[in-house]
Amino acid sequence: MTTATLAPLPPIIADIRRKAAAINKRIVLPEGEEKRTLKAAAILKADRLCTPVLLGRPEVTRRVAADNGADISGIEIVEPAKDSKYAEYCAQYFELRKHKGIDEAEAKKSVADPMVFGVMMVHNDRVDGFLSGADHATADTVRPALQIIKPAPGVRAISSFFIMIFPNPTQGDNGVLIMADCAINIDPTPAKLATIGISSARMAKALCGIEPRLAFLSFSTNGSTDHPLVDAVKQAVKAAKEKAPDLAIDGEMQADAALVPEIGQRKFPGSKVAGRANVLVFPDLQSGNIGYKLVQRLTGCEALGPILQGFNKPVNDLSRGASVDDIVNMACVTALQTDPSLRG
Fold it and tell me: What is the CB neighbour count within 10 angstroms for residue 153?
């Protein structure tokens, strides 16, 4: 019997896992001494969803796994400073970062860190993707990825979104709602906000199979309030419509106008998005982070993410409150992002 969750999976999660299993990518988990990560790795291997690679001290990793009932037999465990590629990765990292003034000793110290070593493994195509964050801040994941993997060509900003999966299919778009950016960009410019919205909408379509209807949120709806913060959202809407005329985009609008048909029709008559939005773009990180967590905790929905978009190769972050299932599901998303169209 597998160690995987026995409860029925939401359709979108079942689909993501099925697609990941079909391609069987190698995903490095640098937090290889953390118990939730080890339990997730056991599920990933047992259910053949992907091939997990753990970073850590083998004796510690195996002890923690045994103490928590995680069968990690057959899973590769790599201790960075003792790995056969360590010296090669140190030399590469030094070349990548010497323009910032680091010396070879600093490079060796950095690459010994599993968070950096794991990204170097992705950089060298030794693994297909990287997932961390169960025991680290978002910056610890994003910083080495920006330094080593870098954004994809033409990408203006690394950003993130959450897939909110509701227990009731009448909520969102058949139970699915996209929220961005809730993890990365603190105070995006209008141009960056437009890019975040467009990337999130295209990812929603590619990953979730929904036809995106993109609402840029504010405390104003359709000019009901005059304020510089509202003007910034209006500029983002204008830029997004110009850059992506194929997408259904509207704003600025309040959350109720975006989600409730009667309110949307009354406050924003004629809008094809108001009252029917399935991709919500928050004006800043404070509102986005607060918003998704309120929805998650008050409705009991599952928040899958943050899913990072814009990197040249697959890199993803986890909430430090991530469950074992969250880690399993995000590993599968990371595997799917080996398709460039699913990296944003």
Answer: 6
Q: Which residue has the tokens 């599968």?
A: 332
Q: Strands (DSSP E) along the chain, which ranges?
A: 26-29, 51-55, 76-78, 129-132, 159-165, 176-180, 213-217, 248-253, 279-281, 302-309, 315-317
Q: Are 175 and 167 in contact (CB under 8 A)?
A: yes
What residue ranges of the chain have pLDDT lower than 50? Answer: 1-5
Cβ proximity of 11 and 293 under 8 Å: no
Locate all alpha helices (DSSP H) within 98-227, ordered by sequence. 104-111, 114-123, 138-148, 190-203
Residue 232: count other Cβ atoms within 10 Å of its Cβ: 19
Rounded CA-CA distance 298/294 in Å is 6
Per-residue pLDDT of 243-283, as tens digits, reads 999 999 998 999 999 999 999 999 999 999 999 999 999 99
Residue 149's region, left for phi above 0, alpha for psi from -120 to 50, else beta, is alpha
Q: What is the Cα–Cα distance from 90 to 88, expressed in whole angstroms? A: 5
Q: What is the rounded distance in angstroms from the CA atom of residue 282 to the CA atom of residue 181?
A: 6
Write b or e for each residue in 181-200: b if 16 or more Cβ atoms lie within 10 A of its Cβ, otherwise e. bbbbbeebebebbbbbbbbb
Whose tokens are 């195509």? That residue is 125
How many Cβ atoms are within 10 Å of 294's Cβ, its own excluded?
10
- What is the Cβ-side half-sphere exposure of residue 315, based on CA atoms within 13 angstroms? 31
Report d(CA 256, CA 262) in Å as an integer: 9
Model pTM score: 0.88
Domains of the chain: residue spans and CATH: 11-154+310-342 (3.40.50.10950), 159-299 (3.40.50.10750)
Name 279's bridge partners.
178, 214
Tell me the sheet residues that pair with 165.
Answer: 176, 302
Say what the pLDDT of residue 153 is: 85
Nearest to 332 by CA among 2, 45, 1, 31: 45
Q: Report strand pairing: 302-309 vs 159-165.
A: antiparallel
